[in-house]
Design brief:
With 101 residues, the chain is of the alpha/beta class. It has a 4-stranded parallel sheet, with helices on both faces. The longest helix is centred in the middle third of the chain and has 16 residues. The two termini are 19 Å apart.
């Protein structure tokens, strides 16, 4: 599967905790970025310190919205904790994961 298209991707940097308190703001940020994205939205998770169930739900919701708009939602720069969380929840195959450059 080709992730990067012909136009420059939109990159959104997320940081801190993604939990019940922060998901409304992060949802607005992601949906706002989707409005500006033509082909690929990349979420940089290098500074995410915690992700709860609500955060995983948010990522899945964002992926669905992206797909409905013909946009690929990809993740990059995952922390070891995020990598492990996606693996144990069996969600690691649901998102394109881009290697660091």
């Amino acid at each position: 599967m080709t992730v990067l298209g012909t136009t420059a991707p939109t990159i959104l940097h997320l940081s801190g905790d993604i939990d019940v308190c922060t998901t409304p703001d992060i949802r607005r940020r992601i949906l706002g970025a989707l409005d500006q994205t033509v082909e690929v939205l990349i979420l940089d998770l290098s500074e995410v310190t915690f992700c709860g169930a609500g955060g995983l739900g948010l990522l899945l919701h964002a992926q669905g919205r992206a797909r409905s708009r013909g946009v690929t939602l990809a993740l990059t720069r995952l922390t070891p904790q995020m990598t492990r969380l996606l693996e144990i929840t069996e969600l690691s195959d649901r998102f394109p994961i881009l290697a660091e450059k």
